[in-house]
Every structure is written in C-alpha cells, then in structure tokens.
Amino acid sequence: MARASNLSRRRLKHFVHLSKHKYRPQRKALKALFKQDTYRIEPDAKVTDKSIFKYWKNRHRLFSKMQTHDLYMTRELWFSVTPEIVAKFAARFIKSCLPDAQVILDVYCGGGGNTIQFAQYFQKVYGVDNSLEHLYCTYRNAQAYSVEDRVWLKYGDWPTLSRKNRFEKLQIDCIFSSPPWGGPQYLKSEVYDLEAALQPQGLRETLQGFLRVSENVVLFLPRNSDLGQVSQVTREILGDEARCKVLYVKDNGFLKGILCFWGEKFYNYACQTAPEDPTTVSSTIDYDIDG
Ligand SMILES: C[S@@+](CC[C@H](N)C(=O)[O-])C[C@H]1O[C@@H](n2cnc3c(N)ncnc32)[C@H](O)[C@@H]1O
C-alpha cells in the first residue's frame, strides 16, 4: 500500500511541470486515475462501443506499442489521436527543417500521439490540454515509449492560458497543434470551414496566438480544409508575400489530413534532405499557397 502511494506521488511529481502549484486542485483526481489504472487498454478485448470500433480495429496504427506496452485512451481519444506514422513524419520533417530546434510546444496534446514522437527527436516537449484525463493518458503513453522525462504537461484552456503571455518566455522553437476538428462529422461537408468549425478558436485566432509564441507554427488540419482560408489568413496576418506550406499526409493509403507550416525554414526545405523513408507517409501534394 505504502509502495503504491509513493509511486503515485513520484508519478504526480513528474506529471507536474510548468507550474507545480497550479496542479493542487487536480492532485486528488490525478491520484485516483493513477491508483485505479483508469483507461488502460486491453488490446485484445473487443470494444462494444460501435462508434469506436473502426478506430479500435486500427489500434496498432495509433500506437505501434499497443500489443507490448500499457497504453491509455479515453473514448474521445480513439478518434483524436494522430496515427503514429503521421506523428513520426511530422516530427522528423520539423527536425529536418529546424535541425537546431530543441523545444516544441504541442497545444491540444490529447493522448500524446504527437507529443511522444516529438520527444523522440527534441529535448523538451511541452503539452497543453484542458482534459486532465487526456494529460494523464499522454503521461502514461509517454511512459510506454520511455520519453516521459522529456514531456512537460500543462492543464488548462489554451485561449485562457495564452492570454497570460507566459509561453513567450519558454523559448519555443516550434508550436505544433492538432486542434479538435469537431469529431468524426468533420467530413460531412465537402469543404471544412476553418473559421466556423475548428475548435476552440478559428484559424485566424489560432494562428495569431501561436505566432506570438514562435515564428514556426505547424497545424494538423482536416484533409477537406478550405485552402482559400489558409491563404487569406496567412496574408492577413503575415503580409501579402507570406507563404504557407501544405503537405497532404497519408497513412496506409488513406489521406489523414494536411500539415500546414508557417515559418521561413519550412518554405525553403529541400526534398533531398527529407527524413529517411519519406514514403511511409506520402506527402502527395506539396501545395505552396503562392506556388
Ligand atoms: C485532436 S485532439 C489532439 C490529439 C493529439 N494530437 C494526439 O495525437 O493525441 C484535441 C485535444 O484538444 C483538447 N482541447 C479541446 N479544447 C481545448 C481547449 N480549449 N484548451 C486546451 N485543450 C483543449 C481535447 O481535450 C483533446 O485532447
């Protein structure tokens, strides 16, 4: 019993990073999650919830360690986590473009799909999410990949936190974000409206806020995103000559979304220095807004 609570305390200590004291009200809830080993996946126990069955069927694509390590998912995370191969591609691509980068901020870090892959290539990864359960899953999943020491998590609502202008001091080399797309319904309309449908802020506000923290910004957005909006917002915020690089990413032959890059070093990236095995995620169209 004593051993278990020491373990929980140690884990909580690791979990609390950016500003320790802010976690006091959450400590009890976190402790309960750890103690009850909540959300641990039984990879071979078939899910009964029909709405997540298709995601469960592809569970090994979400986390390759699904069968060999303890991994943790809430119901929402089943359709939110970035598949590992896509997350790895994004991390490698950013590393190739920004070889000296050390610190990444993953806003809306969810279950850690992206955070974990960033932690494989960068020294420090900050993750922010307004779900304590998701932060707990990120931490647990980072443990499965032995990268939890590089991962620093912050609980809270991003728009509120970002208004306090504290992230500017963290010397973030690149902000990555896979914001909530609004659930699986995002494909219902032919064109995804990046102002009306993206949560919790539209593209303009999201990008403006991120650019205050870092000059390098990467967003993972729906494959049917309105590229006209991307172009317009880019020019409105960064000027008429500004560009945004857009890569279409596939996993297992299926288009998973687009990666949008803002930042000079991304635009001038030479393909011959692409991360090894560039075909695992095919960047089928390299869409340059000005190109
Ligand atoms: C698409 S998921 C991110 C998935 C993540 N990239 C991964 O691979 O696991 C979006 C996340 O945003 C979080 N979120 C939604 N609204 C938020 C807000 N206002 N502030 C902070 N996090 C928020 C949700 O809890 C969810 O975990």
Automatic annotation (TrEMBL):
List the CDD domains: AdoMet_MTases (cd02440)
Query: Which InterPro entries has this protein been placed in?
Result: RNA_cap_Gua-N2-MeTrfase, SAM-dependent_MTases_sf
**Cited Gene3D superfamilies:** Vaccinia Virus protein VP39
Catalytic function, reaction form: a 5'-end (N(7)-methyl 5'-triphosphoguanosine)-ribonucleoside in snRNA + S-adenosyl-L-methionine = a 5'-end (N(2),N(7)-dimethyl 5'-triphosphoguanosine)-ribonucleoside in snRNA + S-adenosyl-L-homocysteine + H(+); a 5'-end (N(2),N(7)-dimethyl 5'-triphosphoguanosine)-ribonucleoside in snRNA + S-adenosyl-L-methionine = a 5'-end (N(2),N(2),N(7)-trimethyl 5'-triphosphoguanosine)-ribonucleoside in snRNA + S-adenosyl-L-homocysteine + H(+); a 5'-end (N(2),N(7)-dimethyl 5'-triphosphoguanosine)-ribonucleoside in snoRNA + S-adenosyl-L-methionine = a 5'-end (N(2),N(2),N(7)-trimethyl 5'-triphosphoguanosine)-ribonucleoside in snoRNA + S-adenosyl-L-homocysteine + H(+); a 5'-end (N(7)-methyl 5'-triphosphoguanosine)-ribonucleoside in snoRNA + S-adenosyl-L-methionine = a 5'-end (N(2),N(7)-dimethyl 5'-triphosphoguanosine)-ribonucleoside in snoRNA + S-adenosyl-L-homocysteine + H(+)
Please name the Pfam families in this protein's record: Methyltransf_15
GO molecular function ontology, one term from the record: RNA cap trimethylguanosine synthase activity
> Which biological process, per GO, is one annotated for this protein?
regulation of telomere maintenance via telomerase
Query: Which Gene Ontology cellular component terms are annotated?
Result: nucleolus
Looking up PANTHER family in the UniProt record yields: S-ADENOSYLMETHIONINE-DEPENDENT METHYLTRANSFERASE RELATED, TRIMETHYLGUANOSINE SYNTHASE
Per the record, the similarity remark reads: Belongs to the methyltransferase superfamily. Trimethylguanosine synthase family.
Q: What is this protein called?
A: Trimethylguanosine synthase
| Species, as recorded | Lachancea lanzarotensis
Biological classification of the source: Eukaryota, Fungi, Dikarya, Ascomycota, Saccharomycotina
